[in-house]
Amino acid sequence: MTEIFGIPTQALFGQLLIGLINGAFYAMLSLGLAVIFGLLNIINFTHGAQYMLGAFCAWFLLERWGVGYWWSLLIAPVAVAATGVLIERTMLSRLYKLDHLYGLLLTFGIALMLQGVFTHYYGSAGQPYRLPEEFAGAFDLGFMRLPKYRAWVILASAIVCFGTWYIIERTKLGSYLRAATENPALVQAFGINVPRMVTLTYGFGVGLAAFAGVMAAPIYQVNPLMGANLIIVVFAVVVIGGMGSILGAILTGFGLGVVEGLTKVFYPEASNTVIFVVMVIVLLIKPAGLFGKAA
After folding, report:
1. How confident is the model over 239-286, as pLDDT tens digits?
2. Residue 115, burial from CB neighbour count under 10 angstroms (0-12, 13-18, 19+)
3. Spatial distance between the Cα atoms of 198 and 253, rounded to a whole number of angstroms
4. What span, in angstroms and rounded, lies between the C-alpha atoms of 113 and 115?
5. What does the pLDDT look like over 42-56, one tens digit per residue?
6. What is the model's pLDDT at position 294?
């Protein structure tokens, strides 16, 4: 068996794969956070709970109504995004003129309520979600076997992330969104309904979290705390990439997933803290983040 730096090749590439998969979820979740913060200036602490809602929605669709994975991948993000629209219209819209701290506290409280309700009814034990039959088996790459579903997760997350970046940064719709954050009164003067745009943008960010939850359901067990265990890491990813930076969230998410995977190979004791160590170093050198702009 060949080795690299004294580590068996299969083990090294296996951890790299795990890191890429984790990075895919970091990228999708941090992208949703970056969209919401960058365009709406809302620190959405409910994001982890909305990720959990996406996974539970897919589980409900499969177990209660027999709706398969592919339809769940479409229905669950739309359904959870609708709840996000409801939250934005009925609660968050009342806080826009107040300090950002009020929005953070509100979303944090909503997250705790959602987690508490689902924990009460389903406990903290996970609910299994069956792997789609189309993704049974693995690709033989010679030096390792790559499970088909893991390959799909990496590919789909890259398409969704960079597709979102393209829409926001390279299309007319994206220019309207960015202009609305800088001068909403001027954009409104051109006949664009800015409040509706804000609501739909928040719903889209929530939908990204739910999409990640559906993607995660066959890999991780569906449980009420799955988002709570991830959201702190994702916030660290957003801070490292630069608050509100779309490209920063994507590249940092994938990159830190790989860094975390490699750390598990060479220094496992630090794997749970390496992202926060990187965050501290980046903030000391560049407080606005790697891709962020100084205020």
Report:
1. 999 988 999 999 999 999 999 999 988 888 998 899 999 999 999 999
2. buried
3. 25
4. 6
5. 889 999 999 999 999
6. 62
Average pLDDT along the chain: 90
CA 267, 145, 252, 29 torsion: positive or negative?
negative
With beta carbons less than 8 A apart as the criterion, state whether 251 and 203 touch: no
Domain boundaries, the chain: 8-127+148-285
β-partners of residue 146 are: 139
Contact 277, 288 (CB under 8 A): no
**Does residue 53 contact residue 224 with C-beta atoms inside 8 Å?**
no
194-216 helix and 47-65 helix, angle to the nearest 10 degrees: 60
Range 8-127+148-285 has CATH code 3.30.300: no
Identify whether the C-beta of residue 294 lies closer than 8 Å to the C-beta of residue 288. Answer: yes
Contact predicate 19/259, CB 8 Å: yes
pLDDT value at position 75? Answer: 97
- Confidence (pLDDT) at 5: 57
Residue type (1 letter), 68: G
Two tokens at 16?
Answer: 């790299």
**Per this entry, what is the length of the chain?**
295
pTM of the prediction? 0.94
List, in sequence order, every beta strand (DSSP E) within 79-232.
138-140, 145-147
Strands 145-147 and 7-8: unpaired
Say which residues have a Cβ less than 8 Å from residue 118's Cβ, sequence separation at least 6: 52, 56, 224
**82 in Cβ contact with 203 (< 8 Å):** yes
- Mean pLDDT along residues 79-87: 97
Q: Residue 230, by phi and psi: left (phi above 0), alpha (psi -120 to 50) or beta?
A: alpha
